[in-house]
Write a structure and sequence with these properties.
Layout: E1 3-8, H1 14-28, E2 32-37, E3 51-55, H2 69-77, E4 84-91, H3 97-108, E5 112-113, E6 118-121, H4 126-139
Parallel strand pairs: 1-2, 1-3, 3-4, 4-5, 4-6
């Protein structure tokens, strides 16, 4: 059984709803899943999991949330080489640039992207929730 962490930050609940769908998909696929808010995760925990889903909405000028999520993720970066990960998040404006930038950062860190990232505008609809469940299954 694979161990999957779902790590997220959510300001409005949209990314939290996505995280719940990711966790559901990974559980359905047989993984042992632990869900963390960003403030409860860090680089020291990366090795405890076979795969990690990171979720963060677009903030400001299409960037990761700066006070909790970005410092946590920066702490994890040194441990991502060869790690199976997936990314998800919501946005309210822009075209997804934050996700493309984040994906490139992960690839530069040597992480293995398990599947296409999932983004949705505002609250996740049924299609976005289904895509998040598939993301979770890809990590399991």
């Amino acid at each position: 059984m694979s161990k999957v962490a779902v790590v997220y930050w959510s300001g409005t609940g949209n990314t939290q709803a996505m995280a719940e769908s990711v966790a559901s998909g990974a559980s359905e696929a047989g993984a042992e899943v632990t869900v963390f808010e960003a403030c409860d995760f860090g680089g020291a925990k990366v090795s405890e999991f076979d795969a990690i889903a990171f979720g963060c909405p677009s903030m400001g000028a299409e960037q990761l949330e700066e006070s909790e999520f970005e410092p946590m993720f920066t702490d994890c970066e040194a441990f991502l080489s060869g790690k199976k990960i997936a990314l998800f998040g919501s946005y309210g404006w822009g075209d997804g640039e934050w996700m493309r930038t984040w994906e490139q950062t992960c690839l530069d860190d040597g992480a293995v992207l398990a599947c296409d990232s999932v983004i949705c505008n505002e609250a996740p609809d049924d299609d976005a929730k289904a895509a998040c469940e598939q993301l979770g299954k890809a990590l399991a």
